[in-house]
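Practice problem: predict the structure.
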Amino acid sequence: MEKQVTTGEKIRHLRLERNLTQKTLANKCGMYESQIRKYETGKANPKIETLQKIADALNVPLFELMENLETKRICKKIGSKVQNLRKSQGLTTNDLAKLSGIDETIIQCCEDGTNIIELEALKQIVVTLGASLFSIVDNWSIYPNRPDDFTWYAGNYSDLIKAGEREQKHEENLLLADYKKLNIKGQNEARKRVNELTEIKKYTELEDEFYE
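Answer:
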């Protein structure tokens, strides 16, 4: 099994690659040389805000300094949620690209979990699907500079309505597709059972869970 490269080892490698001493890097980050030494040797782990300063000083994106497995896990989880939401509305990645205005390759990278996409792009994808970023991202370590204005994270009411309509239409199409797989006898039985369900109150009352 390939050895996992630690954050400290990455910092040291990039520092040496740029011919920087620990003291020089520390000065660029506004911290003590001893801190850089502890990070590189693994005796201390930098907070995400500190890691961002180091990344800026080394001129690399934040995720490049994060431990690969953790970054990959976060990205995979976000991608899986976006993909499930898209599929629940019967959309292809191309459909979503047209609706959101985000390039299809970016959407595919997001769903594959192969990269960290810009927060603004992720927001546009998510709100197009009628969701809030908070329902998709539960670990913000890869987005340390996120806006403080919480209203920024949600879409507008029309996005919510359109997403709900797409999801309902998709469910109807799936139900119809299953119905068509049945023979005449099966279709008659299906209609009978559906009719029985319409007489039961808990199956006919409107649910508000989509809008909560």
